[in-house]
Write a structure and sequence with these properties.
- This protein is an all-alpha fold and about 60 residues long.
- The protein has one domain.
- Helices cover about 75% and strands about 0% of the residues.
- It contains 3 helices and no strands.
- It has helices at about 5-10, 15-35, 40-64.
- The radius of gyration is 20 Å and the shape is flat.
- About 0% of the residues are buried.
Length: about 60
């Protein structure tokens, strides 16, 4: 009979790999929270994303 592992261990293979990822992720989030930058306004992000999506659509149409 096998021991049931938590889902995160199944993704990473070992508890050590899962723990390493967890530490890395938490440190990355903490650095982001501590960043005093002003960020990018929502409307600007949406405008940039619309342009990226439209470019991808144009490229896809030219391939097909």
């Amino acid at each position: 009979m096998s021991t049931e592992l938590p889902p995160i261990v199944l993704v990473f293979g070992t508890e050590e790999q899962a723990a390493n990822y967890d530490r890395w992720f938490r440190a990355k989030v903490q650095r982001s929270l501590e960043n005093p930058g002003a960020g990018v306004p929502h409307d600007e992000v949406m405008t940039r994303m619309d342009a990226i999506i439209e470019e991808a659509r144009r490229k896809r149409k030219s391939i097909v």
